[in-house]
Structures are given as structure tokens and as C-alpha cells.
Amino acid sequence: NAGVTQTPKFRILKIGQSMTLQCTQDMNHNYMYWYRQDPGMGLKLIYYSVGAGITDKGEVPNGYNVSRSTTEDFPLRLELAAPSQTSVYFCASSLFGTESNSPLHFGNGTRLTVT
Amino acid sequence: AQSVTQLDSHVSVSEGTPVLLRCNYSSSYSPSLFWYVQHPNKGLQLLLKYTSAATLVKGINGFEAEFKKSETSFHLTKPSAHMSDAAEYFCVVSEGGGSYIPTFGRGTSLIVHP
How close A97 comes to chain B (CA, Å)? Predict the structure, then answer.
């Protein structure tokens, strides 16, 4: 059971380039989330999805886009990368919403540097 | 609205001594509460969760947390620290009322000295 898989593990982008961070889960979870983690700031929610075809903005969505065409996949798209997007990105999933005590399952993260 | 405050950004202990990581929360509903651990260059792993069945919650690796509604706290403890406990710990709150979004604390870095 692979759980939540993120690719790539590391990436360096030049300012203005675009890329897609991939996230897939094999647990048939309904809810999926994208977070960014910056030192001393905890995790900030970028986008989330409560099921295939449904996405919504989190706390810090600017500069990002997502799609959820299948239950398994939740890619995060960066358009026109900026140095402020240098961060570690985590994808997570849960069976139900966390308000129902359903815990989050995390991938191992993507470390992105924009120079 | 929900919020969570981890009262210490760093906690330093000696191996074999008790660990206390403090977390206060605010919620308009009956919240779900979680503690996650993150080892260096890894994703986050669930330590324990509060389910309302019991106020004292036991988790993995000897950790436990006590839910105190009157104090709006959910502190994480362990009787005896091990070197392998050195990591970043996150307290997370998720309230009901139709909100699906958990809120993370800023994290507490646990340093364990030999």
C-alpha cells in the first residue's frame, strides 16, 4: 500500500517557469489537500478538494491552480514561478473531513527552489 | 472560527526525562484535535487524535495527550524522552459546522540531549 505519493522530490525552477507537482493516493480517500511549509510558519493550506470535480481555495492560493479529475490524483500547478514560492510542498488525503476525526495522510513532500 | 497556538517554538530535554509540548486551541464547535510528528526531511505522521470518547488519549511511541475543555488545551506528554523523539511536532484543530479545513499550529521543535 503506497499511501500518498508525491513527485518530484526536488525541483529547481527559474523565475517565470511553470511546473506541475504530482500527487496520487491509493486509499480511495475523498478529501485531498495541498500545503506549503515554510520555516517556523507551520503548514499553510493552498487548495483542497472534497471529491472528484470539486476544488476550493485555502489560505494561500495565489499563484497556484489545481484540478481533481479522478479520486486518486490531485496535481498542483505553478504558473509563472516566483521566489516567494520557494518552499516545501506537502500533499495529504483523508477518508472524510478532519472535523469527523479522520486523520490526514501525508506524502513525503516536494522541495521547490525558485531562483 | 478555529485557531491553535503552540506555546513553545523549541523544547530542549535530556534523554530519559519527561517531555511536555503545549497546545491551546480555540473553536466555536466541539473540535477534533490531532498531534502530528515530522522527522527531518520527511512527511508528517499521525501521533494521536482526540475522539471525545476519552479525555486522555494514547498515541504511538509512548506519547499521550490530555484534552482539557475548561483550559482549551491539548498538551502532549511522554514520560521519558528518547533520542529518536527529536523532531518537529504539530498540534492541529478541526472544528465542525461544515468546515473541512484543519488548522495547524506553527510547530514545536523537540531537541533531545544525550
Answer: 5
**Rg of chain A over all Cα atoms, to the nearest angstrom:** 13
**Angular region, A65: left φ>0, alpha ψ -120 to 50, beta rest:** beta
pLDDT band at B98 (very low <50, low <70, confident <90, very high): low
B74 touches chain A (CB under 8 A): no
- C-alpha cell of residue A61: 492560493
pLDDT at position B96 = 67
**C-alpha to C-alpha distance for A49 and A115, rounded to whole angstroms:** 30
The answer to whether the bond into B102 is cis (omega within 30° of 0) is: no
Q: Which of B45, B46, B99 lies closest to A99 in CB terms? A: B99
Taking the CA of residue B42 and the nearest CA in chain A, the distance in Å comes to 5
Q: Distances from the Cα of B32 to the Cαs of A48, A75, B37, B60, B100, in angstroms?
A: 18, 27, 17, 18, 11
Residue B46 in contact with partner chain A when CB distance is under 8 A: yes
Closest Cβ–Cβ partner in A40, A43, A99 for B100: A99
- Confidence (pLDDT) at B87: 97
Quick one: pLDDT at residue A39?
Answer: 82
Cell of A46: 493552498
Tell me which residue in A31, A41, A101 faces B49 most closely, judged by beta carbons: A101
Residues of chain A with pLDDT under 50: none
pLDDT, tens only, B7-55 = 999 999 999 999 999 999 998 778 889 999 999 888 899 999 997 778 8
